[in-house]
């Protein structure tokens, strides 16, 4: 009996231990299932979210525009003509700086052209790096293809030189002309020098030890600004962001990121937020383009749209006199006028109709894009369009 009781005792202990392990295992699986479910719900909630990086810019981090005046040489007779006096003056000045004195009257060349050079200097550009420049003719040059841009300083709005441009020009087009015909592709009087500008001076910017950052929305909106601030505060579990207006969000740099502001910006840019958009209908009467926003709604209204076509045919009934009758030829005008008006059904739009319902109803009416413009203008005049109508 003692051995039997011991056997049942061990069996009971082993069974209870297995049940505990099974319960703990099932509980662990349940916790993981709940965690996966929460993650899936979060991902579905952020399905329409975009990165903050795509909708904001950081104050102080921007491009700087540069401009310069220069000469392009080596053109095959397609440069500026004699009427472009500033081109000749520029050439004379350049030759004098090189130790040669020439008479402007004696210069008759067509292989040079005066150009303007423009460039956008990227933020945090360092001395010695290169960037692309655009070259545009300002004289009567026919083609810049095959030309070489000479040493040209590029200046900013403060009048200081930040880069030097020089190099071969690529226009990506051509221009050919004969006695009776001509052909042209793209604009041969505008070209580009890839990596043609060498940065000589850096724009002073300080991005270290900053105590706060100012984020600016690309499209100002109070709701979007509030959502951006809330997303940042939730991510860092602290109220470090606050909105100043519809376009600005001021973010205080946490103490642990004071020495790593770049890492702090990286975290902010990766956060997701769903931007809010204004209800708007944009139409372009020149091209017949109509763009309807997602949040556009229409009040309860009945819509009918009919087409009226008028066809006019002009002809003349000619009465020819008999030979030698000394009569006159008489032409009697004959006008055939046909007016046709299609029978248009009336569609009832319920209040709060979504964009899908609007599109289906308008497609049922068989309207064209240009008809849509008239319909939306009529809806706005009736006060039934709950959106802003913008005509380009």
The share of residues in extended strands comes to 25-35%
Shape: flat
Total number of β-strand segments? 23
Major sheet strand order: 3-4-5-10-7-6
Protein described:
Among the domains are: 64-174 and 185-199, no CATH class; 212-273; 280-312 and 339-391, no CATH class. Helices cover 28% and strands 34% of the residues. It contains seven helices and 23 strands. It has a six-stranded antiparallel β-barrel. Strands 2-11-13-12 form a four-stranded antiparallel sheet. It is flat, with a radius of gyration of 37 Å. The N and C termini lie far apart (100 Å).
Write a concise keyword list for the protein shown above:
392 residues; 6-stranded antiparallel β-barrel; flat; disordered N terminus
Describe the SSE topology.
Layout: H1 2-45, E1 50-51, H2 52-55, E2 56-58, E3 64-73, H3 85-97, E4 112-121, E5 130-137, E6 148-155, E7 161-168, E8 174-177, E9 182-185, E10 190-199, E11 212-217, H4 222-236, E12 241-243, E13 248-252, H5 261-270, E14 272-273, E15 280-284, E16 289-292, E17 297-298, E18 301-304, E19 308-319, E20 330-341, E21 346-349, H6 355-365, H7 369-381, E22 385-386, E23 388-391
Parallel strand pairs: 15-23
Antiparallel strand pairs: 1-14, 2-11, 3-4, 3-6, 4-5, 5-10, 6-7, 7-10, 8-9, 11-13, 12-13, 15-16, 17-22, 18-21, 19-20
What is the compact description of this entry?
This protein is an alpha+beta fold. Among the domains are: 64-174 and 185-199, no CATH class; 212-273; 280-312 and 339-391, no CATH class. Helices cover 28% and strands 34% of the residues.
